[in-house]
Specification:
The chain is an alpha/beta fold. The protein has helices spanning 20-37, 58-67, 86-99, 116-123, 133-144, 172-181, 196-206, 230-236, 238-248, 268-277, 286-300, 314-329, and strands at 5-10, 41-44, 73-80, 104-109, 165-169, 185-187, 218-226, 281-284, 304-308. The protein has an eight-stranded parallel beta barrel with strand order 1-2-3-4-5-6-7-9, surrounded by nine helices. Helix 3 crosses helix 5 (133-144) and helix 6 runs parallel beside helix 7 (196-206). The longest helix is centred in the first third of the chain and has 18 residues, at 20-37. The chain is globular and about 65 Å long. The chain starts with a strand and ends with a helix.
Length: 331
């Protein structure tokens, strides 16, 4: 079996009964652990006005984790570019790359990473910034170029640094853009699987080679809950499903311990909504993971699997990372 590239997406999720500081420490511990397992990268996602997510200052968190790891790539999954001036992001990631050379990824998304009221606060009442996403990506690329001596505005640190850009998405719009610009593409199937298959097809069909990438590179972010037994994995996964139910019903809670039954058991409307939102979720023991993930990778021509890990128990969380790695790559 060919090895499958593995990476992780982390939101520094706050667990019930724990603090933001402890959530960040948990992220550091997870990054150090998967680094030793041979994972490719760990990305942190920009979200705002969410009480139980500690990754809002994404660039700061990336630097904190990079300082405490040795060689694993650390990046954004992603920076919601319309929330920021491209120059600021170029300077921030130029600083990160200068401090941790060859280890920084810059994943870019167009969504606000929050609700519309908070988006207005971030974007100073200009909600049209998302329409200029392509222009902002191109501007960011220009700031990283090494041929800007006559430009009036330049990025220091940033200029001349090789910081790989990734286009993120949860719809087909981003697939078209990633293909057009010849950039790697990461799809958020862990919460928005509806357009996953269509977006994957569009990206590969329309991809235009660029000086950054000569062929498509497709990352699929999915939920994987692995344990010693499938029964245990299914039990641990209730924390994930209960969390999504809280999002859907606007009753957001910290990541909570697993339950014997999901909290929405017997409520068909919520059951269907959670199922639709988490259709790209894999739970099971090593044998199940070893069967399901390679088949998924082959069907959609995936180059890298990025897993979330919404497991409440810290030890079980790390164990899941290990089982995934051993099941897929024998590590």
């Amino acid at each position: 079996m060919n090895k499958i590239k593995l990476s992780a997406l982390d939101l520094a999720t706050v667990c019930k009964g724990h603090t933001v500081k402890e959530a960040i420490e948990r992220s550091v511990e997870g990054a150090q652990y998967i680094e030793n397992l041979g994972y490719e990268r760990v990305w942190f996602a920009e979200h705002h006005n969410m009480e139980h997510i500690a990754s809002s200052a994404t660039s700061v968190l990336i630097g904190h984790v990079a300082e405490r790891t040795k060689h694993i790539r650390i990046g954004s999954g992603g920076i919601m570019l319309p929330n920021h001036a491209p120059l600021v992001i170029a300077e921030q990631f130029g600083t990160l790359e200068s401090l941790y050379p060859g280890r920084i990824d810059l994943g870019l998304g167009r969504a606000p990473g929050t609700d519309q009221v908070t988006a207005m606060a971030l974007r100073r009442n200009n909600l049209n910034t998302s329409f200029y996403f392509k222009d902002d990506v191109l501007a960011l690329q220009q700031y990283f170029e090494n041929d800007n001596p006559h430009e009036k505005v330049r990025a220091f640190p940033g200029e001349g640094l090789d910081i790989p850009l990734y286009i993120l998405g949860s719809s087909t719009d981003s697939a078209h853009l990633a293909a057009e610009l010849g950039l790697p593409y990461a799809f958020a199937a862990h919460f928005a699987p509806a357009m996953f298959a269509q977006a994957a097809e569009i990206y590969r069909k329309e991809f235009k080679p660029s000086r950054h990438l000569d062929k498509p590179y497709f990352i699929a972010c999915v939920n994987i809950i692995a344990a010693e037994t499938t029964a245990e994995a299914d039990f641990l996964a209730t924390s994930l499903f209960n969390m999504f139910a809280g999002i859907l019903t606007n009753h957001r809670r910290p990541l909570s311990p697993p339950t014997e039954k999901v909290i929405y058991d017997g409520i068909p409307e919520i059951e269907k909504a959670v199922y639709n939102m988490t259709a790209c979720t894999f739970t099971g023991d090593a044998k199940v993971i070893a069967e399901q993930i390679p088949a998924f990778v082959k069907e959609y021509q995936i180059d890298e699997i990025m897993t979330t890990n919404y497991i409440f128990d810290a030890g079980k969380r790390l164990e899941s990372f290990r089982i995934i790695s051993e099941a897929l790559n024998g590590n």
